[in-house]
Amino acid sequence: MCAKITVDPFYDHYASRTSQMLSSEVRDLLAVTARPDIISFAGGLPYTEAIDPEVMLETVSGVLKEDCPAALQYGPTDGYVPLKHDLVEVMAEEGIPSLPEDIVITHGAQQGLDLLAKILINPGDHIIMEGPTYVGALNSFVSYQPVIHTVPLDDGGLVVERLEETLEGLASRGIRPKFLYTVSNFQNPTGITLEEERRHALLSLSREYDFIILEDNPYGLLRYEGEPIPALRSLDAERVVYLGTLSKIFSAGMRIGWVTAPRPVLEKVLLAKQSADLCTSSFTQRVAHRFFHERDWRGLIRKLRTIYRERRDAMLSALEEFFPEEITWTKPGGGLFVWVTLPDYINSSDMLASALEYKVAFVPGTGFFPPPGGNNFIRLNFSYPELDEIWEGIKRLSKVVKRELSLASCLGLDVGAVSKGSCERGSI
Ligand SMILES: Cc1ncc(COP(=O)(O)O)c(C=O)c1O
After folding, report:
1. Ligand 1 pocket, residue 218 CB under 6 Å
2. Which residue's CA lies nearest to atom 13 of ligand 1?
3. Which of 111, 369, 394, 420 would disulfide-bridge 106, Cβ 3.0–4.6 Å?
4. In terms of domains, do 271 and 310 share one?
5. Count of domains observed in the chain
């Protein structure tokens, strides 16, 4: 069989790092999710309808009435100081101590990830990620050409023993990894949270093997049950670089995230940001500050929690009701995602094509691992679809899954031998 080859006339003009850049399946799928006839569990869209447009109108016009010239102007690279004070309060909500001068405001946490990769990774450096991990971090890191090691997750988060094995293996070859990246709470894509005991173990390994920890925490305040667990950053501010964002608790469109880190690291982040974009939008920083200063933002988070908890419950109940028993999934205590494990003979990227015929979309697991890997997983988002869409969408998806299972059984695959919860890179 011969594949169709398209020749890019600029092929030999590109930097070699572009050959490793991965296309994000999440981003590609957003095109499909825009179709109104599709029930989409793809993407990770927060429910911005929860905010009253009138409130935003007043907030924006307040900024323009009182602070228009500055809002339209360049600002300091490290960010708008009054907003930094608000971010200190946001972190305090999770018991994370911080000072405004220890914060650099970025265009979303995504820019923070890219700047950190830029200042930390030389081509060929070794880094450690969870497997699966956040696709945006993976794509950003990959373009700086590191060697990526993944450590599996189970219900308690990163499996520390497996991390230790990886570290020992690297140390025996004289290799010190630059950093470990973790989404410590309600991870994207699995919804899993790193247990407290493991946080301590992880920190002690980072001291023993001398690597930095990048803690990315967009979902910590979206907890629907149980008690908060101390952030890695609050347990050891010397070892941990922390990324926060307003995307999931206020607005993703404002593009406001931040990095807080040990001072020397923060200074390098600042230099990298200067050359990346000079400063984060003066306008949206002022809008966000006005909102956080004048409005009941804690009330907004409570409202989002109520909405998302209900949607999570609906998704878990629908999965229970419609999905065949060979299939397993995570039961997240917060965040936006459920991670489904299919039998390992099912290819979830292929299954997406059938799902679209049934007018339902999800993200196949492959994007969340360095290739190859993740074929038999899917990520489902429950924050954006309405309750009735969740029930209907899961019902449609169950038909697709059942069709795949029966097809496999017709082909004589060992459908009974589904290894429950098994993951080619560990168990989830
Ligand atoms: C784990 C994680 N980190 C970072 C981001 C990017 O967030 P932001 O919108 O602040 O760039 C996301 C977005 O989904 C995420 O899930």
Report:
1. yes
2. 44
3. 111
4. no
5. 2
The reply to whether 27 and 128 lie within a common domain is no
Atom number, ligand 1, closest to the C-alpha of residue 257: 10
* Angle made by CA atoms 159, 114, 9, in degrees to the nearest 5: 115
Q: State the Cα–Cα distance between residues 82 and 288, nearest whole angstrom.
A: 10
Q: Is 375 in the pocket of ligand 1 (CB under 6 A)?
A: no
Residue nearest to atom 7 of ligand 1 (CA): 109
Which atom in ligand 1 lies closest to the alpha carbon of residue 256?
10
In a domain, 285, yes or no: yes
259, 146: one domain: yes
273 lies in the same domain as 317: no
How many angstroms separate the alpha carbon of residue 261 from the centre of ligand 1?
A: 18
109 lines ligand 1 (CB under 6 A): yes
**Any ligand 1 atom below 6 A from CB of 134:** yes
Which domain-ending residue is among 294, 310, 339? 294
- State whether 44 and 180 are in the same domain: no
252 lines ligand 1 (CB under 6 A): yes
In a domain? residue 334: yes
User: Please, what is the end-to-end C-alpha distance for the chain in angstroms?
Assistant: 37
Cis peptide before 230 (omega within 30 of 0): no
Same domain, residue pair 99 and 197 = yes
Q: Is there a single domain that holds both residue 112 and residue 212?
A: yes
**Residues paired with 152 in a beta bridge:** 131
Q: Are residues 20 and 79 in the same domain?
A: no
Three-class secondary structure of residue 259 per DSSP: strand
On whether residue 275 sits in a domain, the answer given is yes
Please report whether residue 58 resides in a domain: no
User: Which of 267, 294, 321 is at the close of a domain?
Assistant: 294
Domain region containing 154: 73-294
CB 194 within 8 A of CB 157: yes
Q: CA dist 105 to 87, 135, 170, 418, Å?
A: 9, 22, 34, 46
Ligand 1 near 257 CB (within 6 A): yes
CA of 127 to the centre of ligand 1 (A): 19
273 CA distance to ligand 1 middle (Å): 18
Write the CATH number for 227. Answer: 3.40.640.10
| Euclidean distance between CA atoms 40 and 93, whole angstroms | 32
